[in-house]
């Protein structure tokens, strides 16, 4: 999708794999420019999801709210 040259924007993006480190790259988030991101994750999980880098990418992409 990123290499197609097509512009795709979304209002809501559901983060892949519980917000893991490889689920939502900065490049992808900047391309789709979501207003809101939903992350499905259990509290205090042993995998430490969502990943801190993923959360940083989400914030840097200008997302208004994370759920």
From TrEMBL:
Gene3D superfamilies: Ribonuclease Z/Hydroxyacylglutathione hydrolase-like (3.60.15.10)
Signal peptide residues on this chain, from the entry's feature table: none
Transmembrane segments: none
Alphabetized InterPro entries for the sequence: Competence_DNA_uptake, RibonucZ/Hydroxyglut_hydro
Protein name (Swiss-Prot/TrEMBL): Metallo-beta-lactamase domain-containing protein
Lineage of source species: Bacteria, Bacillati, Bacillota, Bacilli, Bacillales
């Amino acid at each position: 999708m990123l290499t197609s040259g097509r512009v795709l924007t979304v209002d809501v993006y559901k983060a892949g794999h519980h917000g893991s480190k490889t689920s939502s790259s900065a490049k992808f988030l900047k391309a789709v420019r979501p207003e809101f991101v939903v992350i499905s994750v259990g509290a205090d999980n042993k995998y430490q999801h969502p990943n801190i880098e993923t959360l940083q990418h989400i914030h840097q992409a200008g997302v208004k709210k994370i759920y």
